[in-house]
Specification:
single chain, six-stranded mixed sheet, five-stranded antiparallel sheet
Length: about 325
């Protein structure tokens, strides 16, 4: 069931088009990700939903109610920002209570709600700590809890993990996914990090130049990009023109091919006519954990290949000749 509907959202700043006729539907309980490069309009779109900026045109419906003219506090939306914006002189419990106290709820009700949300974000033991006593990841969980405790109809997250270091970001990403699944809260997350988008999003909208280029599941966007921009922005696929792909497999071809590096197989020949053997030379070899990333050349074409490896296993070195196989059915054609 659709929970949020955006229709023809448009906005300009002077001569600059910021949002250009955005249409989007988000289902009840969905984690939807807005992904794109800086300046593509994703944060402005999020802020438009929240009511922090006013679009020039378009309609926003949340749970069947038109909200585009409502004040932010009347929209029933919770928001988590990149920076935590916690009250430094208040404890975690006091930070969470602030919004509930503004609603003049009974003290018992406030305490019950806070206890419930502290358990959800696993911060029961930090209830009486002040922000300066918390790690970055804990502060972000408090910011998330502050939004959850108000029981919003929609949760908006504006790059909430980007200020954290890699290990904390990964752990909190897993926590965020768990919390969203546990609460079933419809959520929209803005990010420019494709790994974050692919791991968190039930569906992803890739934005480019004020428009949505493609909306689909993570696997669909990764393996079947709608256009050249999406193909270049998601993953590290080889993008070969029709001429390059034709030369590589030794047959004429008429479309651009998108082939992910792990789709090539090294040293496996086949009598199957649908699979092509390519004689290639290793230009570079870069071990990276459980894979080796190769840059290879064949028929004057440079392409990337990724192969699984094991501890102490030998890998090809620069200058080595190798047979690489490709099944065109594993490629996506634009």
């Amino acid at each position: 069931m659709t929970h949020l509907d955006l229709s023809a959202i448009g906005m300009r700043y002077g001569d600059n088009v910021i949002l250009d006729g955005i249409d989007l539907s988000v289902a009840q309980g969905e984690m939807h990700v807005l992904l794109g490069p800086s300046g593509c309009g994703k944060t402005t779109l999020l802020r438009s939903i929240a009511g922090l900026v006013q679009p020039d045109r378009g309609a926003i419906h949340l749970a069947g109610r038109a909200i585009e003219k409502l004040h932010p506090k009347d929209r029933g939306i919770g928001m988590v920002f990149q920076h935590y914006a916690l009250f430094p002189n208040m404890t975690v419990r006091q930070n969470l209570a602030f919004g509930l106290e503004q609603r003049r709820l009974a003290r018992r009700v406030i305490d019950d709600k806070i206890d419930t949300v502290l358990e959800i974000v696993s911060l029961q033991d930090k209830a009486d700590a002040r922000p300066r006593q918390l790690s970055g990841g804990q502060k972000q969980r408090v910011a998330l809890a502050r939004a959850l405790v108000l029981e919003p109809s929609l949760l908006l997250l504006d790059e909430p993990l980007s200020a954290l270091d890699a290990q904390i970001r990964k752990r909190l990403r897993d926590e965020l996914k768990r919390i969203q699944r546990q609460t079933g809260l419809t959520s929209i997350l803005v990010t420019h990090d494709q790994d974050e988008a692919l791991s968190l999003g039930d569906r992803i909208s890739v934005m480019n130049k004020s428009r949505i280029a493609q909306t689909a599941s993570g696997p669909e966007i990764f393996y079947r990009p709608a256009d050249l921009f999406v193909a270049k922005f998601i993953g590290n696929a080889n993008i070969l023109t029709s001429d390059e792909f034709g030369r590589l497999i030794g047959r004429e071809f008429d479309r651009t091919a998108v082939i992910h590096p792990h789709m090539f197989k090294i040293g496996k020949t086949s009598s199957d006519n649908s699979v092509f053997d390519i004689s290639a030379r290793v230009v570079e070899a870069g071990p990276a954990g459980n894979v080796v990333r190769y840059v290879m050349r064949a028929s004057g074409i440079i392409f990337n290949v990724e192969a699984q490896t094991a501890m102490n296993a030998a890998h090809l070195v620069a200058g080595t000749e190798a047979i690489v196989t490709i099944d065109p059915s594993n490629a996506h054609f634009l």
